[in-house]
Write a structure and sequence with these properties.
The chain is an alpha+beta fold and about 180 residues long. The protein has two domains: about 70 residues, Winged helix-like DNA-binding domain superfamily/Winged helix DNA-binding domain (Arc Repressor Mutant, subunit A), CATH 1.10.10.10; about 80 residues, Alpha-Beta Plaits (2-Layer Sandwich), CATH 3.30.70. It is built from six helices and six strands. Strands 4-5-3-6 form a four-stranded antiparallel β-sheet. Helix 3 packs across helix 4.
């Protein structure tokens, strides 16, 4: 590891491990640099997490054991957070996607934490972002129909004293949905 000395200096300066970018390269938690092979592997598995090490090895020019070792390291360091199945909302009767901008009355830590907790536990909330700008939160919901959304708003917005207002947009067409980072 060529950055061991630099890593120690950075840790002393910042009081914690630097885990993002050094000298134009991405680094893992123990300061091992991710190379182009790691990025190729990540690009492949973000498109299909069920690819075998044999298949990946043929694409990136490494042996299957080398691919498995790299995947293990990428999982252990949190670069690969989880491997999931992407479900079809239409096939599950949840065809309506709704984007909601939420503005809170007050933004202290207790109110923010409370709202975040409620959104995490709401099954129809697919994504929730705490944002800058006019809205405090942006939500992506997937529901079966407008009635389900109405029930959600009554439970989470109208009965909540800290919600100043919210703005709803109904998605007409899912032009692109992706979790890709690379």
């Amino acid at each position: 590891m060529q950055f061991t000395k630099s890593a120690g200096i950075l840790e002393l300066l910042f009081g914690e491990k630097v885990t993002n970018f050094v000298a134009g390269r991405y680094v893992l938690d123990d300061f091992q640099i991710m190379d182009d092979k790691d990025l190729q592997i990540l690009s492949l598995v973000q498109g299909n997490a069920r690819l075998t090490a044999d298949t990946i090895s043929q694409e990136v020019g490494l042996s299957p054991p080398a691919v498995q070792k790299r995947l293990k390291k990428l999982r252990e360091t949190g670069v690969i957070e989880k491997e999931i199945a992407v479900l079809s909302p239409a096939k599950l009767g949840r065809e309506m996607t709704i984007i909601v901008e939420v503005i809170l009355e007050r933004e202290n830590r207790a109110h923010l934490d409370s709202f975040k907790r409620r959104m995490r536990s709401a099954p129809c909330v697919q994504q929730c972002y705490y944002t800058t700008g006019e809205a405090d939160f942006m939500l992506i919901l997937v529901v079966s129909d407008i009635k389900e959304y109405e029930v959600f708003t009554q439970a989470h917005f109208f009965d909540e004293t800290n919600i100043s207002r919210f703005k709803t947009s109904i998605v007409m067409d899912r032009v692109k949905t992706s979790l890709d980072v690379l």
